[in-house]
Design brief:
Elements (H helix, E strand, L loop, with lengths): L5 E5 L2 H8 L2 E8 L5 E7 L5 E6 L4 H15 L3 E10 L9 E9 L3 E4 L2 E4 L2 E4 L2 H13 L15 E8 L10 H9 L5 E3 L2 H9 L6 E9 L5 H6 L2 H21 L9 H10 L37 H17 L5 H19 L3 H17 L7 H14 L1
Helix pairs in contact: 1-7, 2-5, 3-7, 9-10, 9-12, 10-11, 11-12
Amino acid sequence: MNKRPVVILTALDLEYAAVRKHLAGLRTHHHRAGTLFEVGHLADGECQMALGLVGKGNHPAAVLAERAISEFDPLALLFVGVAGALWPQVGLGDVVVATHVYAYHGGTSEDNGFKARPRVWEISHEAAQVAHHLERSGTWTRRLPDRMDIPAVRFGPIAAGEVVQDSAISIHAQWVRQTYNDALAIEMEAAGVAQAAHFNRSLPMIVVRGVSDRADGTKATTDGANWQPRAVANAAAFATSLAAELAQRPHHKWRTASLRKAEDKRMTESVRNIARDHARVGVQAGAIYGNVSLGQPPESGFDATALLAELREELARARTVGTIDEDTFAAAEEELSIVTESLSTDTEQGKNRAMIALRRLRGLLMDLAELAPMVTSVITAIRGAS
């Protein structure tokens, strides 16, 4: 099981509550900018989770999605909620998994009419494969509140704009259906979340929506028939099952930013070019990792202080998402304090004390695939500086 969390974001309190029912061990996490998240795990223990509420609209969704990505470094980002169906074949209560997200308000206004210039984001291949497998297996239905009424799961584009569409005959409604005639549903947040995920490479982003109305003027009727809570319960069941599936798969490409930095530093190497007689060599290289310097030798060693700061940050994040318990965190912090104090003396004896504390720390974090290598990087840095 992957120890990094899956982040699920919702727009409405109703949607938040539907996802929250599947979680356990929840505690409040305060972001420094004031945003409150809840972190815990799926009730069956299959996945670490972080849950957040973004409100309505693509703009706040984008800002808070980026905030969640930076705070938790998740292995995947899901957006869960309700949407309006654009076509009759999409039934109330059906679950729609977005294969593409259209930001449909982009365009240019010309004398002969409005011309669409949408932005489009596509779901990652691996996430799509996992979602299709989950739908075929039917295992996700065990999370449904009513297993006697199993909804269809549909895969297709979702259109995301800035208006609540509740008409089949308005100019806006006709334009959307004509211009985005392959979109299954319409809503107001997916484009913002997709944009934030796009700026964070290798982060799978999946939008899961339950159909609560038909976006055709009957929203008051379907809301009165209690379709919103029914639809979002279906979406939450599929989304949390998808989160569990993603967490159980190896994610060799989905690493923390700090670990990527450490690996890049370890792979830095120099290339010596030799030319004879009148030949001259400018730059000759194969694969290049890390920094490249021309005309001067590369700096030796790593910055142990910077690596220690990154390690502390990742350690705090692991505590936040529940990857390590309080006792382990306290013991690790104690060893880090010894390391910092010992290195401050700038003596050989101080370095030796720091190395001993780091070895103890590595033993504490031995089972944590993302933290133990970072301790090794610090040890390498101190040795290189000797």
